[in-house]
Write a structure and sequence with these properties.
Length: 470
């Protein structure tokens, strides 16, 4: 009786698996590692990342599906990224293992805009976990399925990004795949490409001081037979990109809650709790999912090296600012090319260069030198701290800790710094009408750099930088 029941269960599982099999593993936390959903997201954060994932579905239910996987992704250049993904999915008596390698290419379109393409290919294996007694049958289907069955697998994806917006499309099953084939490998044939995944997400800052950010996203899956088509909508709330929480609803799997955190900026984890579906007769069949990620290298950034400052847009935000908003993010302005650690040449103001040149040549007449040269000769006796002014002055070097497009936001940020015991001031850049909050200013570049280095040792000012308007 036990053997008969097992064989019936296997036969039933065959019929269900062959009719409505969703390609690839199923995860709920799209935001944590979107590379698992669409290969075009490979190394989208421009960092070397290693991730592991584990999902236990329908706890307290015997032989419930369990999925585990690991992936690594890294950029090899500004345009090319590589990734590797391994996962194992076990459902009742069937275990499916899969290994995929990914090649991604980034096509820049404009500032903060890109089109990303990626193609993955690999091999998968299906295996039935049956005992010797269960294998002692005359059924040829079960006999063939009991051995290891390999197949070729692949997918393709494309993602369009502009500031904090990401829109993606993926073909999740490019090759025909028979779960239990009589040959070692399936025939190398293209599928009908009806297994698709559509995604869209947008992250933007909210709240006072922009300490919070929101990221809503939507997914839509299409399957070959249409029986498991489903949409999913979710939203996450981040606090300083340190901790986050959110909620998600899937058409077929119901409601889930998210929670995660960054640990020491190198390790992050995410957890989701999936409630039992509303229409289920098993109230204790919740699901759990855990993701863990580790950054293995420094972030890869692109910095233009030029012989002289170029006239760039003054509101260009750094690549660390995924939202594209004009916040206290580091601004790469046209006349700020003076930071040595930004790999750009130091350019002194024109008047300083002229004065320096005149001091190396004696005057051609007996006339007294112009008065404007005298301050250079007596520089050691001249105070290096300029008088404070609300408008930015040329020739001054400011140690900036925040930049805002709205004056009220800059004042609130200033108040927050003052409450911590530091003295800061606000100046306006007349070239872009932004409000710069600075903690130190000097007429001497090296002195400003020394002050910047001192303040960077304090965790609160680790993003301090030197700005100069020529």
């Amino acid at each position: 009786m036990k053997r008969t029941f097992t064989l019936c269960l296997v036969a039933l599982f065959f019929s269900i698996g062959l009719m409505a099999q969703v390609p690839g593993p199923f995860y709920r936390q799209f935001y944590f590692n979107p590379y698992l959903f669409n290969p075009a997201y490979v190394a989208i954060n421009k960092e070397v990342e290693a991730n592991i994932a584990y999902r236990q579905q329908w706890t307290n239910f015997k032989d419930a599906p369990v999925t585990a996987g690991a992936s690594i992704q890294f950029p090899t250049s500004d345009r090319v990224a590589l990734g590797f993904n391994l996962f194992s999915d076990r459902q009742v008596l069937l275990q499916n293992s899969n290994f995929m390698a990914t090649f991604g290419y980034v096509l820049p379109l404009a500032k903060n805009q890109s089109l990303r393409f990626a193609l993955s290919g690999g091999v998968g294996m299906n295996k039935l976990d049956l005992t010797a007694e269960e294998l002692n049958t005359n059924d040829p289907a079960i006999a063939n399925a009991a051995s290891n069955n390999f197949y070729v697998d692949g997918n393709f994806g494309v993602v369009y990004t502009i500031a904090g917006l990401r829109v993606g499309f993926a073909l999740t099953d490019m090759f025909k795949s028979n779960a239990f084939n009589e040959q070692n490998f399936n025939k190398f044939e293209m599928s009908n490409l009806r297994n698709r995944l559509f995604s869209a997400s947008y992250r933007f800052n909210v709240g006072i001081m922009d300490n919070f950010s929101l990221e809503p996203y939507v997914l839509y899956r299409q399957t070959e037979d249409g029986l498991q088509d489903a949409w999913e909508a979710a939203s996450l709330l981040y606090y300083k990109n340190k901790i986050w929480t959110g909620v998600s609803y899937n058409q077929n799997n119901g409601l889930a809650l998210f929670f995660g955190a960054n640990l020491k900026e190198r390790i992050k984890f995410g957890y989701s709790y999936e409630f039992p579906p509303f229409d289920t007769s098993f109230p204790n069949t919740s699901s759990h999912e855990l993701h863990l990620g580790v950054k293995l290298g420094k972030k890869k950034t692109t910095i233009a090296k030029t012989a002289k400052p170029t006239r760039q847009l003054a509101n260009a935000t750094s690549e660390d600012d995924l939202t594209g908003n004009k916040n206290p993010a580091r601004i790469v302005a046209a006349d700020a090319l003076i930071d040595k650690d930004m790999e750009t040449p130091i350019v002194l103001p024109e008047k300083n260069r002229v004065a320096k040149q005149r001091t190396t040549e004696p005057p051609t007449t007996a006339k007294a030198p112009p008065t404007k040269v005298e301050p250079v000769k007596t520089a050691p006796k001249t105070p290096t701290r300029p008088a404070e002014s609300f408008t930015m002055s040329k020739g001054h070097y400011y140690v900036v800790v925040g930049v805002f497009s709205v004056m009220s936001h800059s004042m609130k940020f200033t108040k927050e710094i003052v409450n911590k015991g530091y003295k800061v001031s606000v100046i306006m850049n007349p070239k872009n009408n932004f409000y710069y909050v600075y903690i130190y200013s000097s007429l001497d570049l090296e002195e400003a750099k020394r002050a910047r280095a001192e303040y960077r040792r304090k965790n609160f000012f680790k993003e301090a930088w030197v700005f100069n308007m020529e």
